[in-house]
Amino acid sequence: MIHYYFAIFAIKKLHVMNNKFKYLVIFLSVVLVFGCQPEKKETKPEHPKNIIFLIGDGMGVSHIYAGMTANHGHLALEQFKHIGFIKTYSSDNYITDSAASGTAMSSGKKTKNGILGMDPDTIALRSVLEIAEEHGLASGLVSTSAITHATPASFIAHQPNRNMYEEIAADFLKTEIDVFIGGGRDHFMKREDGRDLTKELEERGYNVLFDMDKISGITEGKLAGLTADGHNPRYSEGRGDMLPDATVTAMKILNNNKKGFFLMIEGSQIDWGGHANSTEYIVEEVIDFDHAIAKALEFAKTDGNTLVVVTADHECGGLGINGGSFEDGTVEGGYTTKGHTGVMVPVFAYGPGAKEFMGIYENTALFDKFLQAYDFSK
Ligand code: MG
Ligand code: ZN
User: Fold this and answer.
1) CA of 354 relative to ligand 2 center, distance in Å
2) Residues 12, 150: one domain?
3) Residues 28 and 125 in one domain
4) Residue 268 alpha carbon to ligand 2 centre in Å
């Protein structure tokens, strides 16, 4: 405000000044009044170059808190400040499956349970991964299940039934995906049509590798990492650090693309712990998933131009927590079902554009928010 008073004072005194000085004072007054307008607080949209989308299959708030308790009170997830909730119901069911919810998040449309990458009339939808590819970005999928299983498949396949594993595997070759790491080798190699998709992938320039040691050594080019015949084993039964290691490898390879990348990482087996009503299974899978989240956050913090979004496709088990100890890392879980439930699941966002992910909204809105974050029109 002080410059306004100075300008008014100077103008009032104009009559006592000589001509040259008058012009100078008028000029300075104009500069003071119009040049020092209080800054308008513009909320500029922030557009990250890279998006890392992590899905904890079946991971509700209780699953997170069970993992946090078992980990003696903390998870990397606590570093996220922008938090929301999504409604997960599908187009034909109050309780979704992973195909319909995966499709909702990947492609922005609610569909029927069991359908992958298609609307309820089985018309193919374009996924955020495919749209990122069309814009020249790199893309990747990482999963602790078979890479052909519903969650990763919903980003790349277009099939009326999630159990059409061989058709889903063949859909990988219809895209320009740069990196995929997960199980499901049999769907590529032991097929009824006799095709060996690993050969076809090699012909198209992919490094096709079957063990994590070799996979972790790849830093560029295209990579098909098929780490198990079917699903990868659970964390404590031989999978070990496959998920965080595959996350690091995928980020390293995709980061070679100057335009940016889209990477989806799935902690698949939190859901299977829920179906088994096994708190122990849930806890080890949540902590493993959190290690992958930590790797993504580390990358995003160094990079400064990466949006990290963590959510779940639905809750599983109707898990409640009836007791526990941070000190001992013990959790007493209680369950309402062996299946999924309809409850909202949380969304956590970090990085440029993160605040857009706050609030309560449909799972389909994640797709729209991703496109807005990249500044793509559909
Ligand atoms: Mg899944
Ligand atoms: Zn499930």
Assistant:
1) 28
2) no
3) no
4) 9
